[in-house]
Amino acid sequence: MSLSKKILLSVALFVFVFVVGGVGGVFFRDRVIPSLLASFPSLSRMDLFQNITGNTTIIERKEQMIVQEDDSVDAIVSQPSTAVVDIVVSIPTKGTALPTFQAGSDQTGVLLTNDGIVVTYGSPLPATTPAKDATYKVLLHDGSSHDATLIAEDRLTNLTFFRIAGNDFPAISLANSDDSSAGKKVVAIASSYEDYQNRFSIGVLSDRDKRFNISGKTVASSEKWEGVFETDLANPDAYLGGPAVNFRGEMVGLFGETELDGKGSYFLIPSNVVRDTLQLAIDGKIPARATLGAYYLTLTKGTSASNSGTVFSRDHGALIYSPSGKTGLAILAGSPADKSGLRYGDIVTTVDGAEINLDNPLSVAIGKLSRGDKANLTVIRDGKEMTVSVQL
Question: Which value, in Å, is the radius of gyration of the alpha carbons in the chain?
Fold first, then answer.
């Protein structure tokens, strides 16, 4: 090959490499590097890329996730829904051999254990009918019907327990209600009484009312639980006896009701109370709960701040009290409180050394004890501290 041809071929090759390499460089600079810097923004701080990033706009890509709330709620309630049951009561009519169905005697309940213990609030029976005269059936989510036995009625919490025969029932999971606080979302579940379906509603725990006593009176009773959750549900009466579950599907409380000032007042018995009462029912200890027989007001920092210089000025304790101002209406005649000499105006500050306060109100402290126990109460009377022994 002649020298002139070799020179011409070399020039052509150089031009080809220059053109192709230039086009590739431009493509790499304008296309590849911006994408690389968008994925790894930290590279833009390197000297190698400083000149390039100065003339390059990095476009950040953002992905948006859309959560379908209906689908998420369906997932939440899928397991606890199977533990919600319908309790049906039949009462024999006098003069007939067969029991007759009583209208309005259905009530929602919840399976607490795999071996068939069911809880509800209050009693599905009419108030005038003795429990021993009734027969009970529990209708499960799968459409099956089971004969039920009443095993315990707790006067303190108003919880009623039944048992159905069998195993491997779909029990609900109980949350630690101490971890639940106002503002948390919950899903209410109840039996709809038709086709073994349930009804649902979403609400919020609006308050934890530690002074709410379920007696339905203007003052607290030593025989009724004090301390409940409140919700913002528009129709809580439809969920009586049913659970409110958190967004993990765990029961945080059981719907209850009491009449207050002529109206129904609805609340949640916390799940920890349900759990503790269940254990007493299993152990057969509910009938042995102690009673005191007194009405009182739980004193708090709020009552103290607004009643300086009065018997309300203490920030803890239980003030034996009646709006009438009479001992006879604050202490039940013949009760342990009456026999021990407790009076209107006494302030109970401890029970067996445990302070009486919002977290341990008088009814709860007494409810932990058993009939026949002797309790030592620290009492403030006329400004002086004394000890009162009570045979419960």
Answer: 35
* Strand ranges inside 165-314, DSSP E: 185-191, 198-213, 220-221, 226-231, 243-245, 251-260, 263-270, 295-298
Cα–Cα dist 259/206, whole Å: 20
Q: How far apart are CA 108 and CA 364, in angstroms?
A: 26
Which of 170, 179, 199, 159 is CA-nearest to residue 248?
179
> 3-state DSSP call for residue 319?
strand
pTM here is 0.78
- From residue 378, alpha-carbon distances to 146, 227, 278 in Å are 50, 22, 31
384 CB contacts (<8 Å, ≥6 apart)? none
Q: Which residue has the tokens 């031009």?
A: 15
Q: Are 197 and 189 in contact (CB under 8 A)?
A: no
| Spatial CA neighbour of 302 closest among 357, 232, 379 | 357
Helix, strand, coil abundance in the chain, percent, nearest 5: 30, 35, 40
In whole numbers, what is the pLDDT of the chain averaged over residues?
Answer: 82
Neighbours of 149 (CB within 10 A): 12
> What is the number of other CB atoms lying within 10 angstroms of the CB of residue 349?
18
Structure tokens that stand for 118 in this block? 């069911």
Report pLDDT digits (tens) over 30-87.
Answer: 555 556 555 555 555 555 555 554 444 444 555 555 555 555 677 788 899 999 999 9
Helix spans in the chain (H): 3-27, 33-39, 47-54, 69-81, 271-283, 301-306, 327-330, 336-340, 362-367
